[in-house]
Structure formats: C-alpha cells, structure tokens
Design brief:
- The protein is α/β, with parallel strands linked by helices and 235 residues long.
- It folds into 2 domains: 2-125, Rossmann fold (3-Layer(aba) Sandwich), CATH 3.40.50; 127-234, Winged helix-like DNA-binding domain superfamily/Winged helix DNA-binding domain (Arc Repressor Mutant, subunit A, Orthogonal Bundle).
- 42% of the residues lie in helices and 21% in strands.
- Helix 6 crosses helix 7.
- The termini are far apart.
Length: 235
C-alpha cells in the first residue's frame, strides 16, 4: 500500500520512513502544498499528516482534501493536547490523531485500523447509486433505469464526482481536480463541454434531468428535479 507522509521535522520523518518502509511504499514531503499536490496526483491508501507545517497547516491541508472529495484515511500527528483542539481535527475530516511524543508501536496499530477501514470503504464505494443512476467502478459501467450508458473516461470521472457529492454544488475546480488530477486551472470550457456530452447521454434520453447548472458556482446532481426539457439546463 502506498502511504503519503507529510512531515517537515527531518528526524521524525527519517524515523517514520525507516519503520514504515517495511510495510508501505512511503512518499515523504515536507510542505503542505507539496502534500496537496501529491495527494491530488497519486492514489494513496493512507496519509500521515503533521499538524504544524511551515507553509500550510495540517488542519488546512485536511480541510482542502475533504472539501474536494478525497476519501483517503488521514492520521494527524499533533502536539496539541486540549480536547477542543482534537475535536477540531476530527471535525476537519481527520480519521484519527496521535499526540507527540508517541510510540511507533501505537502508530503502526492505528495505521492498521485505518487501513482496514479504508479497504472496507473502498469495497462499498465500488458501487454508487443515486436515484436511477448506478455506477459500477469495478466494471467501469453506468446504468440509468436499467439501461447501460457508454461513457468516455473523463465523462465517467465527472459523473463519479457528481454522484459522490450528490445533492450539493460541485465547483469546476473540484471537478477538474477529480477528473484531470491536476492543481492547474485550464479547464472551465473543457469541463462545460464534457458536462454537455454527459448530459446528452444520461439526461437527454430520459424525462427527468439529473444534472443542474448552478450559474457562477458549478454543477449539482439533483434527482428531485421535476421533469423538464434538458435543453433548459444548457442555456
């Protein structure tokens, strides 16, 4: 399993890499921005995240990843001991935390728990269902009302992202990060074109459109819409 370690303390990082290398393929970065870039462009099974980073705080890194739909288990390393500080970490999306100093044995045990939890979540997440839309990640297949719909890879990824955030507005930035896996922002028109093609396949042949344009904000997968002409969403 690939593990991303975001830690700027060289001594701690070296010790963790030495211990964890026996169990994981470890990628080490020492800055929050570098950690965000790695997380967005690679698939990791676990993330160890130091709270006190020199550029972007671990708390902010965690919040950004969760806001953009990343489900990878995150363990935060912190020197904070106050209960409210720990609650804030969990509210930000951390799955667990360890207070420094900690034993390497406890760290490995916590990681094993998170690894099992992540594997179970992956099994459930292989199949997404929203309304009459069914998405099967294992077979790379989409159905609506039982009808198989053929999608291109980017269309599939965009639909997958919308289904993961069903009922909420998804910005073009989040859609771009998810489908193109890049921190760059060249995709406003590209995303709009891909969404149009996606609508042609999953909305246009059916009475009830699912994809809504939220002008100035992004898109929403909304299965509660009343039947209407899909063209109205493209205006």
């Amino acid at each position: 399993m690939k593990l991303l370690l975001i830690e700027d303390d060289r001594e701690i990082a070296a010790a963790l890499c030495q211990v964890l290398a026996a169990f994981y393929s470890v990628t080490l970065v020492g800055r929050g921005k570098s950690g965000l870039e790695q997380a967005k462009t690679n698939r990791y099974g676990l993330i160890i995240l130091d709270l006190n980073l020199p550029d972007v705080s671990g708390l902010e890194v965690c919040q950004i990843l969760r806001a953009e739909g990343y489900q990878t288990p995150i363990l935060i390393l912190t020197g904070q001991t106050k209960v409210m500080d720990k609650i804030q970490l969990l509210d930000a999306g951390a799955d667990d935390y360890l207070t420094k100093p900690f034993s390497l044995g406890e760290l490995k045990a916590r990681l094993r728990v998170l690894q099992r939890r992540g594997q179970q979540a992956d099994k459930v997440a292989d199949f997404l269902s929203v309304g009459q839309l069914k998405l099967d990640r294992t077979k790379y297949q989409v159905r609506r009302d039982g009808q198989v719909i053929s999608l291109r890879r980017k269309e599939f990824s965009l639909l997958e992202c919308l289904m993961l955030h069903a009922g909420t507005v998804v910005s073009r930035t989040i859609l771009g990060n998810y489908a193109w896996q890049t921190g760059d922002k060249p995709w406003t028109n590209t995303i709009d074109v891909h969404i149009k093609h996606l609508r042609d396949k999953i909305d246009r042949p059916f009475k009830r459109p699912y994809i809504r344009t939220i002008h100035g904000l992004g898109y929403k997968l909304d299965v509660t819409q009343t039947p209407q002409k899909p063209e109205a969403e493209n205006q």
